[in-house]
Predict the 3D structure of the following.
Amino acid sequence: MYFSYQALDSNGKQRKGQLEAESPRAARARLRDQGLQPLALQPLNEAAAPDRSSSGGVLAGRVLADRRPVKPESSSAVASQGQAVSRPSLSTTTVKRPGRAAELTQISRQLATLVAAGIPLEEALRNLAGQNMAGQQASAPATRGGRKTSAAMAAVLDDLARRLREGESFSQALKAHPGLFGPLFTAMVAVGERSGQLDQVLIRLADYQERSRQISRKVQLALIYPAILVLVSIAVISGLMIFVVPRLVAQFEQRDQVLPLITRIVIEVSEALQQGGFLLPLLPLLCWLLWRVSASTPQRHLRRDQRLLGLPVLGSFWRLNDIARLARTLSITVGSGLPLLEGLQVAGQTLSNQQLKQTLAQATRQVSEGQPLGRSLLESGEFPDMLVQMVASGERSGELAPLLEKAADHQEQALEQGISALLALLEPILILLLGGMVFAIVLSVLLPVMQLNTMTL
């Protein structure tokens, strides 16, 4: 049985040819034995089969492989080559953790380096997984930060190498772990396989992931100080209201004194905290439950995200964050050769706000019907004028990817500037609020004392 194939050689170049094998699986195994990474494999009918009398197995400039029958490799054969027979069972929904994104970025860079150096993809994955000759899992190479790849990540890499050995393409193997390799990663790898530039695509993905982590880290670090200030304020005020105020109030009650309004308010709050103060630690849990309930159905999720976008300050930051992610994703997909419609579909899955995701889906449908992307974004009314103008200019000039990258830089810069301005305004506001609350408590205690001194005079 004859097959036509497309494959990548050790240099990442695309090669085409024909070979004879007993089955598609055997054909893929034959290609891998020759150091080729199969991309596409199609059976040939008898009319299209090469002439067996052709000397050297070459027909019209196409390479014909050796005609000896090839059987799929057994588990023992794989084990004899240093591959593990038994492997840890892996869930197809690998859970992402905060540290896993950093591991994925580092592995993408390492894999790009190995592929660019001419190392076959399967061997590169095995090297990254850190397997020894007996097939037992060992620690993976250390990253630049000194951490070692986790055992779970090494098991994933080992599973990818096994799937490649069995004949799957790299992009197909990645789909077995959707929790770790998202739609963007899988689609970009498929583009790299088709174009023969897998190493370049992996470098772009690593840059994209690193930039995304930097933006997320800046937002998280920017919120740490206000969060700590709020927690300290709550702790200080609660301590004063629960432990200090009741002792002072007891002195006033013994004298049967008419207390000022602010003092009575503080006393009421203090008594409420003494009776129900144990519920305060449950407040974060209650907020989390309300947040989850607000997204329990698609309709509720959409309404919640619409309200969030309408918030005076936080809504603008959320919009900027998603739009910057959209522009960055589109720039890397379009710049790598992915069709615009596929790039829009992939970019839509990276958005966190359901309102923006729904708007982009509508724009994608309009683009599929022949309408320019810039006009579709303009009609939606959800995207900033700068992005719309740069997209329209890129479509007219044929340089959509570079202009999308500039738009992403602009949106990310606007986000960082907005966060810095918000923090510069938020810190003194929180300090004033804390100082005002403490002053009110102190004043509620001093006023009765001053009244008592006046009465004695």
About this structure: Residues 198-254 form the longest helix (57 residues).
